[in-house]
Predict the 3D structure of the following.
Amino acid sequence: MEESSTMPRVDRRLKAVGWVLSIIGAALYCYGYFAVGGAALINWPLYLPDWAIQFLPNWQAEAGFALSIIGAIPIYYVEIRNL
């Protein structure tokens, strides 16, 4: 009985963490995309076509993109678990 009363609170915290990570990731991606930064961590020309390489020009954009995806996991985990 006690566990069911704390689940909505945990769900809200998970969603909040997910949204915070997504927003930070989006801000970091925008900064990395528009600013001149360091070199990319991954050698993208080996794995992606030329048009896709333009979306990840440096490590700031790569980190922001990764944070945005990682932030989506707790958001959708809560929704899927509640089905």
The longest helix spans residues 2-34. The radius of gyration is 17 Å.
